[in-house]
Amino acid sequence: MILGIETAGRRGGVALVSPAGEVELLLPPGPQGTALLPAGANALLTLVGAERVDAVAVDIGPGSFTGLRVGVAFAKGLAQAWGVPVVGVRQTEVLARAVLPWPGRIAVWIHDRREFVYAAWATPDRVGRETVLPWEEALRRALERGASLLVGSGALEFRDEIRARAPELRVAPEALAHPRPGTVARLGWERFKAGGGEDPRGLEPHYGHKEE
């Protein structure tokens, strides 16, 4: 059984995944939601009749600075208290997983601030490194490389402009634009089974890369 924690996006929550199935609890956005993380995790454990899990998975970003720090700290605290490993997954991986099995190239855009996005390329096999770009530059590169699907809060933020300037590109619907804790947990479960858990003391938020 693995607990998934999502606080990097505008909508957060917690989820439990095990061979028996999945339960997910979405929380309000912002500080109100992050304050409810402990109560949400306890509610899920009570629901399934468990006192602890085998591992903890958390979205390490990029995303909200405050949300990331709260979520990662909570995940590390739980993992240390239970003596279990923690698994970090990136928000770009979570968002790309939500639109698979898309057959072509995927551009994952996470809205950063104003006119900027964290941009990463994804295929069914892997998700590349995130780079902070002005959204118009990210759009130019998407057109050059033939991205056929854009997904994430950044794609949603500039959806109207994308449709006006690049009608050949598709924008994933709003329901897929925000990472879900259930997807965080499933990705974490896969890595945990493959031996991907790590010492919680070494886990840190991932804030993306600025292009040099």
Structure explained in plain terms:
The chain is of the alpha/beta class and 212 residues long. 37% of the residues lie in helices and 26% in strands. The chain has two domains: 122 residues, Nucleotidyltransferase, domain 5; 85 residues, Nucleotidyltransferase, domain 5 (2-Layer Sandwich). The strands form two sheets. It has a six-stranded mixed sheet with strand order 10-9-6-7-8-11, sandwiched between helices. It starts with a strand and ends with a strand.
List the helices and strands and how they pair.
Blueprint (H helix, E strand, L loop, with lengths): L1 E5 L5 E7 L2 E7 L3 H5 L1 H12 L6 E7 L3 H18 L3 E5 H8 L7 E6 L4 E7 L8 E4 H11 L3 E3 L1 H5 L1 H7 L4 E2 L9 H13 L15 E2 L2
Parallel strand pairs: 1-4, 4-5, 6-9, 8-11, 9-10
Antiparallel strand pairs: 1-2, 2-3, 6-7, 7-8
What is the overall shape?
Answer: elongated
Strand order of the largest sheet: 10-9-6-7-8-11
CATH fourth-tier homologous superfamily of the largest domain: ATPase, nucleotide binding domain
Mean of all residue-level pLDDT scores: 92
List keywords for this structure.
single chain; 212 residues; alpha/beta; Nucleotidyltransferase, domain 5; 2 domains; 6-stranded mixed sheet; 5-stranded mixed sheet; 8 helices; 11 strands; elongated
